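Please fill in the sequence for the structure shown.

STRUCTURE ENCODING:
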């Protein structure tokens, strides 16, 4: 599919054809790694790729209620949103010199731009492909890429619950209720007649009403509500400078290093991180009554600050990391399991 493109790349860079193929595939792999780490990427000649999050939802489908799990989707726009990142990718992920990276960026921009203008099919291995289908030239994400973007939700499936119509039950009046009502009515009538008869025989006596005495209320003994001091949470330091607790509030951002179904596995993976001086914690979460455990680190006021921190971490630690916004405040403790 990319034969013509890689041949042109080989000619412009004075490379053997196989060298050009390896270089192009390496650049595609660098794009995939960058998107998984930072969820956005701009490449001159192509456009901008970014990841959007669709939260969990429920939909009434008439006879059933459909619960859909959350999903991350890869989107594409032809406009470049934040400049060209081709040079930085070539330097940081392909170990090229700045001069070589600049030459590669200029060549790829020319080839990509021409291919998209002519609506040629271009496959970016592991990322997706540009192709003409049903009369429209579009970008189609690679299935493997979408699976990687949704690795934290891989065990969550769509749930369909059938809805049952409520059964209407006819109320029946108990058979004993009517005779009982008649008996009560007769008793009331008899009581009224007896009261009238008693008043006519025994006239009421004149009694002087008693005077009411006001009792003063001693307010000096009333309990006074005192303001309670606000609870404070402090981070406690363990040996080696690693925090023993972390408070996350709604709106904060954190870096999720890995996600596990087993708490025991999460605690096992936590130990080497904390031994290396990384303030990592186990962050439990529920999704449609399924509990899973995330290894996280950091507390950031915005996504940009978290992305900057993620760039400075070791590649072997952040190979599958992503940034998560805190939806609900939580206090995490590091002592558990240590």
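FILLED IN BY: designer on duty
SEQUENCE:
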């Amino acid at each position: 599919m990319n034969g013509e493109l890689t041949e042109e790349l080989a000619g412009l860079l004075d490379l053997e054809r196989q060298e050009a193929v390896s270089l192009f595939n390496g650049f595609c792999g660098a794009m995939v790694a960058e998107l998984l780490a930072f969820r956005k990427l701009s490449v001159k000649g192509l456009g901008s790729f970014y990841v959007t999050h669709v939260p969990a939802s429920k939909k009434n489908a008439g006879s059933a209620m459909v619960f859909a799990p959350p999903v991350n989707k890869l989107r594409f726009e032809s406009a470049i949103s934040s400049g060209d990142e081709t040079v930085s990718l070539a330097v940081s992920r392909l170990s090229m010199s700045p001069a070589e990276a600049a030459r590669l960026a200029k060549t790829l921009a020319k080839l990509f731009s021409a291919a998209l203008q002519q609506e040629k099919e271009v496959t970016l291995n592991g990322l997706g492909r540009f192709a003409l289908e049903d009369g429209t030239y579009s970008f189609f994400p690679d299935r493997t890429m979408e699976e990687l973007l949704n690795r934290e939700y891989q065990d969550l499936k769509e749930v369909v619950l059938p809805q049952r119509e409520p059964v209407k039950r006819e109320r029946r009046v108990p058979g004993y209720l009517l005779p009982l009502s008649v008996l009560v009515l007769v008793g009331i009538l008899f009581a009224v007649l007896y009261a009238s008869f008693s008043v006519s025989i025994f006239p009421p006596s004149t009694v002087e009403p008693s005077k009411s005495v006001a009792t003063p209320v001693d307010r000096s003994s009333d309990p006074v509500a005192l303001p309670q001091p606000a609870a404070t949470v402090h981070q406690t330091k363990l040996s080696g400078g690693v925090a023993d607790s972390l408070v996350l509030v709604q709106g904060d951002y954190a870096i999720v290093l890995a996600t596990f179904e087993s708490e025991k596995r999460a605690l096992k993976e936590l130990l080497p991180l904390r031994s290396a001086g990384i303030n990592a914690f186990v962050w439990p979460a529920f999704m449609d009554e399924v509990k899973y455990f995330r290894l996280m680190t950091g507390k950031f006021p915005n996504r940009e600050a978290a992305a900057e921190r993620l760039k400075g971490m070791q590649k072997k630690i952040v190979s599958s990391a992503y940034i998560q916004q805190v939806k609900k405040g939580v206090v995490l403790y590091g002592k558990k399991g240590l």
